[in-house]
Structure formats: structure tokens, C-alpha cells
Design brief:
Blueprint: H1 4-39, H2 53-69, H3 81-105, H4 113-144, E1 150-155, H5 158-167, H6 170-175, E2 176-182, H7 189-198, E3 203-206, H8 213-226, E4 229-232, E5 243-249, E6 252-258, H9 265-284, H10 286-299, E7 305-311, E8 317-323, H11 330-337, H12 358-365, H13 373-378, E9 383-385, H14 392-395, E10 412-414, H15 416-419, H16 428-440, H17 444-460
Parallel strand pairs: 1-2, 1-3, 3-4, 9-10
Antiparallel strand pairs: 5-6, 7-8
């Protein structure tokens, strides 16, 4: 809620969970070592706790971060037990995948799965108990009313301040005490200064949906002279999608509206995973690439690769690579098939395209023809996950401006449209809706989920041409 305080509270919460998880792993190991032989005679002795240090290094620091991404620390007072359990289960699944990855690919051995199970049960119970304790503290703060929390004054037109009071959550009310309201349009500025003195105000929140810049500037200057923080609501600019944040340009404070994932460590990590993932996939799929190249060379006359100008991020064109699966003069024959187009909108798609040769059709069914695009990922023109890149001439035919927002991120090898069965989607509007859903809900975990589901979609034929 209140800026830095909320951030510090979150970090303290995560630090507490770090300690809880580490303690639960230790207790789980002790229970297995002490109670195991008593309950099950002849059971193998538990390994020394040092064998579990690598599991501790995964569980303790990463679980709080995953819990944060699942919203575990948000809206605590209004959360039900079922919601908390779902968030804990989702986090446990993701951390379990991390441990499985380390065990399979890094060869780090899990010496006792019983210890992991005990740790999971104890951790879930401990985190729920801690959450219940925090709920009790917050409710006590609410009951204290004006006796607790930061002393805040609301300033602005009467309707706007009343609207802000109604929309405040219980957590926000627990963190602060509204000690008064100041009508920015009716009362003199001297009255604001009096209220700052009389009520021992530490922060003034301006709720000015109907902007009065001159009045706000004067009030902020008064707060500045008194050493009182001033917060200005930015909801006088109404947006339906964009998320506001602040930045600095040329020494000036800028209010920025993001309708795409903003620059963050997560976005940086996505770029790193793209490059390393593309390189690893090229190495692992080298035999398949060689087989495809040989098959195309033997079964069809013409170049092995097909290149085409596609629209990249923000519509910037780039040269995309694919294995050629059609006859060499396929582009010149496209106009003859336009009456058979099965997709609405600017996109051209024919299910049984006569231009595709037999071996090329097999490559398409397994999406092997898309593998050369890993080179585009290495070059930074594409991502492993993102909206599929369209030819430049199809982008130019898009009539709805809102649909061009799919160009606001890098195009990808796979996406929601791919894993949900693109052969069953014949509407360009539905296709774009899935792309925008991906953009609006993007996270590293969503990318990993799509990547994990892509092989299954390919084998089922859901992603086939």
C-alpha cells in the first residue's frame, strides 16, 4: 500500500518464509531420521542433513518468489483458506519442477523423498499458520481505528475523496488512519496547513480525478514546506489496458502507461533463456535438422530453406527462416488459392494446401519446419514464446488498430494459439485475443508452461499446419 513500507513488509514477509522453509526442511529431516526407524523397522537410515543442502538452496529462496508471483501475499484479509491452499499448491508444483530439473539434468540426487514430503506438509501448515497470525494482527489494527497506522489526510474535491475512501481495502485501512479530509476546491490553503498541524499528518493523498493542477501545485508546495509527503492520484487519466508507472526523462518526472510487459529482471531473464534455450535446442536437434535438410534435398527441387519478411517487435521487419515445405514457386501460386482461404481477416491459411509436397507435409505435422527459427531467436529477432510472426503484407492489411498490439512484443516460436490447437481456430479475432491474453498475463512461469505444453500439442497434431 504505502510505497516503501509495503515493499519492506513484503521483503520481511518473504524473509520470514525463507526461515520457515529452512526450519521445516530441518524438522522434516529429523522426523525421518528419528521416527522412521521406530515406525518402520529395518528402514534405511536417513542420509546426513548435508546431503540436502542443495534442496535447501532451491526451496528456501525460490518458494517465496514463486508465492509472490501467485499473489500469496496480496489481499490477505479477504482471502479464503481455499484460495491460500490453491496458491500454495501451485507454488509447490513449480518448486517441485525445479527440483526435478536439478535431479534429471544436473544429476543432483534426492536421497530421501520422505524428507521432501514431510517438508512440504510442514511448510504448508507453517505458512498457513503465519498467514492466520498476520490476519489477526491486521484485524486488531482495524479495530483500533484512529489509534493505529500512519496518519493520512485526504485532499481533493469532496466526491473524489469519498470515492477513494470507499475503494480502500481492509489492508490499506489497517496500515493507515485517515485523520481528515480537505476540499481542494472549496477551502483556503491556510486550512490545509492548519490540518497538517492539528492532526499531526505524515502524508497527504490527493484524490483529484477532476484535475485542478494550479490548486494541487499550491497544496504540494505547502506540504513540501511542512516536510509532509504528498501523493497525487493519477486516475484523472482513464485507461482500460495500460498500467501506470513513473520514470525520469531529462530530469523531468514522467507518468508512463504500459500496455505491455515493462522492463524488469523477469524480462531480462526471458531474453537470457531465449538465447541459451535456442542454442541448446539447436545442438540437441542437430540430427533432426540434418535429416530434414537431406529429405528436402532428395524429395523436392529448390532451396532447402524458405525465407520471408515477417513483422517483428513494433512491426519492424526481419528475415525469418523456415524449412521449405512447398514447391519452389509457391508464392506465385498463392493468389490462385485465395478463394479457398479458411481464416477470416488478413491471414491466409489452407488446410490441404496443394503446394505442399509429401515430405514437407510430414515436416509440418511435427512442426520441424519451424526449427530454423531458432536462428532468429539467437539473433534476438524472435523469442521462444510469443505471438507468431506474420508476413509484412498481412500486417499491412490489419484493419482493427487494437489488433496491432500483438506487435508490441517479440514474436515467438510457440504461443497460446499453438498449444490450443490452431487448426480449430479459423477466426483471426480469436487468434489475436489469445495473443493479447498472453501479453496481458505474461510471466516467466507462463512461458515455461507454454513451452512444456508445446511438445504434447505437436504430437497430438494440435499445432500442425
Amino acid at each position: 500500500m504505502l510505497g516503501r513500507r509495503q515493499e519492506i513488509n513484503l521483503q520481511l514477509n518473504q524473509l520470514a518464509d525463507f526461515c520457515i522453509l529452512a526450519l521445516c526442511l530441518r524438522v522434516g529431516h529429523l522426523l525421518r531420521a528419528v521416527l522412521g526407524p521406530r515406525l518402520i523397522p529395518g528402514i534405511v537410515d536417513a542420509p546426513h542433513f548435508s546431503e540436502f543442502f542443495w534442496i535447501l538452496a532451491v526451496i528456501a529462496p525460490f518458494t517465496p518468489l514463486v508465492l509472490e508471483s501467485r499473489g500469496f501475499y496480496n489481499n490477505i484479509l479477504n482471502k479464503t483458506l481455499a484460495q491460500s491452499l490453491r496458491q500454495l499448491a501451485a507454488a509447490a508444483l513449480r518448486v517441485g519442477v525445479m527440483i526435478g530439473f536439478c535431479e534429471i539434468f544436473l544429476r543432483w540426487e534426492v536421497h530421501s523423498r520422505a524428507v521432501l514430503v514431510l517438508t512440504g506438509v510442514l511448510s504448508g501448515m507453517a505458512l498457513l499458520a503465519k498467514e492466520a497470525f498476520l490476519k489477526r494482527i491486521l484485524r486488531q489494527r482495524l479495530l483500533r481505528g484512529t489509534m493505529g497506522g500512519e496518519r493520512v489526510l485526504l485532499a481533493g474535491p469532496g466526491d473524489d475523496t469519498r470515492r477513494m475512501l470507499v475503494t480502500m481495502t481492509d489492508e490499506q485501512r489497517a496500515e493507515m488512519t485517515v485523520v481528515g479530509q480537505f476540499d481542494l476546491t472549496e477551502e483556503p490553503m491556510s486550512r490545509l496547513v492548519e490540518l497538517l498541524h492539528e492532526r499531526s499528518v505524515s502524508r497527504v493523498v490527493f484524490a483529484a480525478q477532476h484535475v485542478h493542477f494550479a490548486k494541487i501545485e499550491e497544496a504540494v508546495q505547502a506540504c513540501e514546506m511542512e516536510g509532509v509527503e504528498a501523493w497525487i492520484g493519477a486516475d484523472f487519466l482513464q485507461t482500460s489496458i495500460a498500467r501506470p508507472s513513473f520514470d525520469v526523462l531529462g530530469g523531468r518526472l514522467m507518468l508512463v502507461f504500459h500496455s505491455t510487459p515493462e522492463v524488469s529482471w523477469s524480462l531480462w531473464m526471458k531474453n537470457v533463456l531465449d538465447r541459451f534455450g535456442a542454442f541448446a535446442l539447436i545442438v540437441l536437434s542437430a540430427p533432426v535438422l540434418l535429416f530434414a535438410m537431406t529429405g528436402i534435398w532428395l524429395s523436392s527441387r529448390g532451396p532447402i530453406f524458405f525465407t520471408q519478411d515477417r513483422a517483428g517487435k513494433n512491426g519492424h521487419p526481419f528475415r525469418m527462416f523456415k524449412f521449405r515445405t512447398m514447391c519452389a514457386d509457391a508464392e506465385s501460386k498463392r493468389k490462385d488459392l485465395e478463394q479457398n482461404n479458411e481464416m477470416s481477416g488478413p491471414v491466409f491459411k489452407v488446410k490441404h494446401d496443394p503446394r505442399v509436397f509429401a515430405f514437407g507435409n510430414w515436416l509440418r505435422k511435427l512442426s520441424i519446419d519451424e526449427l530454423p527459427q531458432l536462428l532468429n531467436v539467437l539473433r534476438g529477432e524472435m523469442s521462444l514464446v510469443g505471438p507468431r510472426p506474420l508476413p509484412v503484407y498481412e500486417i499491412e492489411r490489419i484493419e482493427k488498430h487494437a489488433q496491432r498490439r500483438r506487435l508490441s512484443v517479440k514474436p515467438g516460436l510457440t504461443c497460446l494459439w499453438q498449444i490450443m490447437g490452431r487448426n480449430r481456430i479459423s477466426s483471426f479475432d480469436d487468434w489475436v485475443a489469445l495473443d493479447l491474453k498472453y501479453i496481458d498475463n505474461w510471466s516467466i512461469w507462463l512461458d515455461l508452461e507454454i513451452l512444456c505444453k508445446t511438445p504434447g500439442a505437436v504430437l497430438r497434431g494440435a499445432g500442425a499446419h
